[in-house]
Amino acid sequence: MQTGDRQHKLAYAYAGVAVLFWATSASAFKLSLRHVGVQPLLFIASVASTIVFLIFLIATGKLRLLRTLTRRDYLWSAGLGLLNPFLYYVILFKAYSLLPAQEAQPINFVWPLTLVLLSIPLLGQRIKLASILAIVISFTGVVVIATRAQTLNDILHFHFSNAPGVFLALSTTIIWSLYWIYNTKDRCDEAVRLFVNFAFASACILVLMLATGQAAIPDRPGLLGGIYIGIFEMGITFLVWLKAMRSAKTTAHVVNLIYLVPFLSLLCIALVVGEQILPSTILGLILIVTGIIVQKLTG
To answer: Given a cut of 60, is residue 75 above it in pLDDT?
Structure first.
């Protein structure tokens, strides 16, 4: 087997691991929030991720790169840390506390189309007619999920099951998109950037907890849930996904595996969390993914 083919197969293996871990995230969020509040959960997860990134930097000899960063580099990466993980996960966890996991997860998945919309004013990109169609398809899926629609009348009347939760889940797509748009201007090594992002965000979350009186020690399930999220939703999985991107002949083939995440996530939610998956959730998710695929093929 040639080295290139071996590397490409490794890329699929890395991506597969990342997809499986991300598929468990929604269930981990929902189960953990039963035992611990939003802010403590994020603090535990963020600290766990920071430790993972630190260990990776030490193991790969990249820790020395921290000394090469300028003050501007640190400020920029710290600012990105305010977007993700700080603001992004505070809002996402709150959305999960208000919505069933089967609703929060697919709505959060529309971020690729939000990225397209934000790229128009922020990056000066033009939007095609096909992209508009893709956005309409996906956001129809969001409405179907959010209204738990069984008929066309349910969709047209916009009777959301939990309007604040839907709003928060949708707002996370804006924050996530902004994070990746501004990431293109960050000159740091990816792993170094993630370490600085999460280290700064951990400090911010601690300050927020102290200011709001939520700095309480969680029970064991909450603590373990936060550590699991920090390692397998954020830390190791981000690094494995980056490895997959670098190993692939073309990233497009590997990126396509991401479309498995929401469907595998629904299976995990049903089996682990115990939610009965509604037909509206399945239909809405199909519409969301269809819109994203249309955008990718025609964008």
So the answer is: yes
Give tens-digit pLDDT for 112-160: 888 888 888 887 778 888 888 988 899 888 888 888 766 666 665 666 7
CA distance 83 to 228: 21
pLDDT digits (tens, 9 = 90+) for 20-46: 999 999 999 999 999 999 999 999 999
Residues 284 and 218: their CA atoms lie apart, in Å, by 35
Give dist(CA 17, CA 62) in Å, integer: 24
Q: What is the dihedral of CA 278, 281, 284, 286, to 10 degrees?
A: -100
Q: In this model, does residue 53 exceed pLDDT 90?
A: yes
d(CA 238, CA 53): 10
For 178-225, the pLDDT digits (tens) are 998 888 777 788 899 999 999 999 999 999 999 998 877 889 999 999
In the three-class reduction of DSSP (H, G, I as helix; E, B as strand; rest coil), residue 261 is classed as helix
User: What is the rounded CA–CA span in Å between residue 212 and residue 205?
Assistant: 10
- The answer to whether 44 touches 227, Cβ cutoff 8 Å, is yes
SS3 content of the chain, % helix, strand, coil (to 5): 80, 0, 20
Q: Which of 251, 205, 192, 256 lies closest to 88, judged by CA?
A: 205
Closest to 280 (Cα-Cα) out of 98, 141, 160: 141
| Amino acid at the residue 53 | F
**pTM of the predicted structure, to 2 decimals:** 0.90
The SS3 call for residue 20 is: helix
Q: Is 9 helix (H, G, I), strand (E, B) or coil?
A: helix
User: How is 190-223 classified by DSSP, letter by letter?
Assistant: HHHHHHHHHHHHHHHHHHHHHHHT------HHHH
Q: How far apart are CA 131 and CA 116, in angstroms?
A: 8
Helix residue ranges, H only, 124-247: 129-147, 152-156, 163-183, 190-212, 220-229, 236-247
